[in-house]
């Protein structure tokens, strides 16, 4: 019969708990506290959507200005024509 460990520490249980594939890692008590980092507004899709805030509005405004300039603002100077 092996001698009893007075501290109750078992190196084999420690190695099993430290393994990333262990049952203990799957029952991580801190997992629920870390879960908020990957849900809701912090999910990967939401972070990607918000990488350039205002880019969509700026693109539409720029396209609108380009259309306005093309159709309503005429250049009366005729640059490049020879002056007789």
Structural commentary:
By secondary structure, this protein is mostly helical. It has one domain (11-72). The chain is 48% helix and 0% strand. It has five helices and no strands. It has helices at 11-18, 23-26, 31-34, 44-49, 55-72. It is rod-shaped. Keywords: Electron transport, Membrane, Mitochondrion, Mitochondrion inner membrane, Respiratory chain, Transmembrane, Transmembrane helix, Transport. It is a single-pass membrane protein.
Short description:
It is found in: Mitochondrion inner membrane. The protein has five helices and no strands. With 84 residues, it is mainly α.
**End-to-end C-alpha gap:** 117 Å
Can you write the helix and strand succession as a string?
Answer: HHHHH
What is the global morphology? rod-shaped
Mean pLDDT: 77
Whole-number radius of gyration? 33 Å
Largest sheet: none
Helix-strand makeup class: mainly alpha
How many distinct beta strands?
0
Q: What is the beta-strand fraction? A: under 5%
Low-pLDDT residue spans: none
Estimate the helix proportion, in percent: 40-55%
| Total tally of structural domains | 1
Keywords: Electron transport, Membrane, Mitochondrion, Mitochondrion inner membrane, Respiratory chain, Transmembrane, Transmembrane helix, Transport
Organism: Aspergillus nanangensis
Pfam families: NDUF_B12 (PF08122)
Family: Belongs to the complex I NDUFB3 subunit family.
């Amino acid at each position: 019969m092996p001698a009893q460990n007075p501290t109750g520490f078992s190196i084999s249980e420690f190695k099993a708990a430290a393994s990333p594939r262990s049952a203990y890692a799957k029952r991580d008590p801190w997992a629920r506290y870390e879960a908020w980092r990957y849900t809701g507004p912090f999910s990967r899709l939401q972070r990607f959507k918000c990488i350039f805030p205002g880019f969509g509005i700026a693109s539409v405004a720029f396209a609108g200005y380009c259309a306005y300039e093309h159709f309503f603002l005429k250049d009366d100077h005729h640059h490049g024509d020879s002056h007789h």
